[in-house]
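QA checklist item 7 of 12: single-chain prediction sanity check.
[x] sequence parsed
[x] length recorded as 123
[x] structure emitted
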Amino acid sequence: MKRRYQPRRASISPLAAAAAAPALFARRGDAWRWLPAALLLAPSTLFLFAFTYWPVMKVLGQSFLVGRFAGQYRPGLDNYARLFADQHFVRGVGNNIVYAAGTIVPSLALALLFALALREMTR
């Protein structure tokens, strides 16, 4: 019977690993290796946060405030209660689900079929 190779598993305590990590980074200089990539990604990350994530978080926070006259607000879920009670909204959500299922699933299936067909045609 042929014996399979099984590598040895080294056991190291979590404390020893935590103590060795700063020395490993200081020795190899891995912390500085990522600095150019971080500097190149910083402008796009800043714009992504400023024009995508911040407005979404702001609108989500304001959606819990129910406006009253003369600038009075009170927190609550009344906006969401009215939204889900509206039959037009429920119909719109259903239409979006049907549209997504009718477009995303066939397009992914066709893309997979084309990819498999091209894979078989390579030399």
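[x] summary fact logged: The longest strand covers residues 65-67.
[ ] second reviewer sign-off
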